[in-house]
Amino acid sequence: MRLVVGISGASGAIYGVRIVEQCCKLGVEVHLVVSSTAIRTIEYETNYRMEDLRRMASKVYDNQDLGAAISSGSYLVDGMIVAPCSIKTLSGIANSYNSELLTRAADVQLKERRKLVLMLRETPLHLGHIQQMLAVTQMGGIILPPVPSFYHLPQSIDDIVNQSVQKALDQFRLEAHLFERWQGMEQGEKKREGYR
């Protein structure tokens, strides 16, 4: 499998980092594009650096390189995940404003009818945000905010991050076993007893 992963400058850089990390472990060919703001956010919010991502990704592109392979629909990939996705990036995608490679690569997924997953990081939302999400959804994109669930009884921030990352990977049928899936209330009760 060949996936494009975009990391925008929104808070939540760990989502993009963890997706690259898990794809690397699963043998997925990762084509990575990172905004300049995201580089700063990665280094501020995590213990990772761009050099770490370069080692994990199959190919890393300059966000200003609109001539890159992933800017063309003739370059075959299985889809793209933008994690995290800022409102600026969402707006660029919703309006086909392809001034940077990250938004151009996302636009290519939509025009080629490939899967595009946006892990939108913003709250609260105003009507303009919702309208941009609606536009992307109508074009075939998937809005997948990293909203934590608690039925798997997370014990750490990593547990919460991993559940959202697995939900994004699920869109491409990639199983990284990052959290315990829901098996029904009875199974959940047994697990809960183990934590008491």
Automatic annotation (TrEMBL):
Chain residues that bind dimethylallyl phosphate: 151, 167
Gene Ontology molecular functions: carboxy-lyase activity; flavin prenyltransferase activity
UniProt keyword Transferase, yes or no: yes
EC numbers, comma separated: 2.5.1.129
Pfam families in alphabetical order: Flavoprotein
Domain Flavoprotein, first and last residues per copy: 1-171
Alphabetical list of InterPro entries matching this protein: Flavin_trans-like, Flavoprotein, UbiX-like
Catalysed reactions, as listed in the record: dimethylallyl phosphate + FMNH2 = prenylated FMNH2 + phosphate
Residues annotated as signal peptide: none
Keyword terms, alphabetized: Flavoprotein, FMN, Lyase, Prenyltransferase, Transferase
Residues at which FMN binds: 9-11, 35, 86-89, 121
Enzyme class per UniProt: transferase
Role description: Flavin prenyltransferase that catalyzes the synthesis of the prenylated FMN cofactor (prenyl-FMN) for 4-hydroxy-3-polyprenylbenzoic acid decarboxylase UbiD. The prenyltransferase is metal-independent and links a dimethylallyl moiety from dimethylallyl monophosphate (DMAP) to the flavin N5 and C6 atoms of FMN.
UniProt record similarity statement: Belongs to the UbiX/PAD1 family.
PANTHER family: FLAVIN PRENYLTRANSFERASE (PTHR43374), FLAVIN PRENYLTRANSFERASE PAD1, MITOCHONDRIAL (PTHR43374:SF1)
Protein's name according to its UniProt entry: Flavin prenyltransferase UbiX
